[in-house]
Design brief:
Layout (H helix, E strand, L loop, with lengths): L6 E3 L4 E5 L6 E5 L8 H4 L3 H4 L2 E3 L8 H12 L4 H17 L5 H10 L2 H17 L4 H20 L24 H13 L4 H15 L4 H5 L6 E2 L4 E4 L8 E4 L2 H14 L21 H14 L6 H15 L4 H8 L4 H12 L1 H11 L2
Helix pairs in contact: 3-5, 3-7, 4-5, 4-7, 5-6, 6-7, 8-9, 9-11, 9-13, 13-14, 13-15, 14-15
């Protein structure tokens, strides 16, 4: 088998079949002697299709591809950029090249048909590795988005058409609930040291405003206006900050923290560990903070679970007013909130009880 850096399908006779994972017809190279062994080749066919090195280098402009990768990663927050970098590096490892730029050049160099086939093989390999559907779909989405940008920039005239896996994974949208959040606050009641005040302010923002941990750690002191009772938050996928109203308990917790930290310029929440003392708190640190506090309270909790709990509580308190809660949660798609609402009300369980009781 030749190098993956320049590939095309073999010109040897092919047979067609239906791939169980992708749901599309594929071609698999076969010699004359084994053309009748179709049944033994059905499993893993997408990965085993023969590849033949091209005779010469692609005409695709390598600097243009490098600029494409840079543009694809630019303007994203740190977590998203890191996730996309990891996705591109995983694809690079699959095609046996050392950099994301080389992988992108390989993907774009030989036309839409071969690009789609290559990504179908990659998709099949991800499934074989046992990765979660959400992980597989994110990696496919990264490749589709990069090629789409390449089309926008005039590098290629086509788009990837490899679809995501069909999956409806279980999603816990309830979190620890109001009682669980209360237990976390109780754990902090005996701690009025500087770190305890910081942690209480963080918990209040995670629950009272349903902030994401990335939104919390990106806050600067200047974003907070305690007199007006607002905080300016850069939401997920947004380019500008929006002002959110602070409830009384949240404002009190933030004021208590600022009594310690002061109104100095810079990050609102900082690290207390010796190695990073005074530096901006990271999203990973917030995850550990909530997790460890939960363990002390006898709970399994994560920061996003507090957001889930807050949204579920909001739906309960508003009688399931999805549009009103969408303003609180800042979800762009109301269908996402319907998932929370269905889980909260257990509509399927109610109907099951009616059916069972009718017998």
């Amino acid at each position: 088998m030749g190098s993956f850096s320049n590939i095309q399908l073999s010109s040897t006779p092919c047979t067609k079949g239906l791939d169980k994972i992708t749901g599309v017809l594929y071609s698999v190279s076969m010699n004359r002697s084994n053309r009748n062994k179709r049944t033994n080749r059905r499993k893993g066919n997408m990965k085993n299709a023969a590849l033949v090195p091209l005779s010469g280098p692609s005409a695709l402009d390598t600097p243009a591809v490098s600029r494409l990768v840079d543009a694809f990663l630019a303007g994203r927050n740190e977590r998203t950029m890191k996730a996309y970098q990891n996705d591109l590096e995983d694809f690079a490892a699959f095609v046996k090249v050392s950099t994301a730029d080389e992988a992108a050049r390989l993907l774009l160099a030989h036309g839409q048909g071969q690009a789609n086939e290559l990504v179908l093989r990659y998709k099949a390999e991800l499934v074989d590795r046992g990765l979660a559907a959400a992980t597989i779909n994110r990696r496919l989405a990264a490749l589709r988005a990069m090629v789409k940008l390449g089309r926008t920039l005039g590098i290629v005239p086509w788009a990837l058409e490899v679809s995501n896996l069909r999956a409806e994974p279980y999603r816990d949208t309830k979190g620890p609930g109001r009682a669980g959040f209360r237990r976390l606050l109780d754990e902090l009641d005996e701690r009025m040291d500087d770190k305890g005040r910081r942690d209480r302010a963080i918990l209040r923002l995670l629950f009272d405003l349903a902030l994401r941990r990335g939104e919390v750690v990106s806050l600067d002191v200047v974003d907070l206006d305690l007199e007006a009772g607002t905080v300016a938050v850069l939401g997920k996928g947004r380019t500008g900050k929006i002002k959110l109203t602070l409830p009384g308990p949240t404002r009190d917790a933030l004021r208590s923290w600022l009594d310690v930290w002061g109104n100095k310029a810079g990050p609102l929440f900082v690290n207390f560990d010796r190695a990073g003392k005074g530096r901006r708190l990271t999203a990973t640190s917030v995850y550990r903070l909530v997790r460890d506090l939960g363990l002390k309270a006898g709970l399994k909790v994560r920061p996003h679970g507090l957001r889930h709990a807050a949204i579920t509580e909001a739906l309960d308190l508003t009688g399931g007013d999805v549009r009103k809660v969408a303003r609180f949660s800042r979800h762009k798609d109301l269908r996402t909130l319907n998932v929370y609402d269905d889980a909260r009300a257990d509509l399927g369980g109610e109907v099951a009880a009616l059916v069972a009781g009718a017998v």
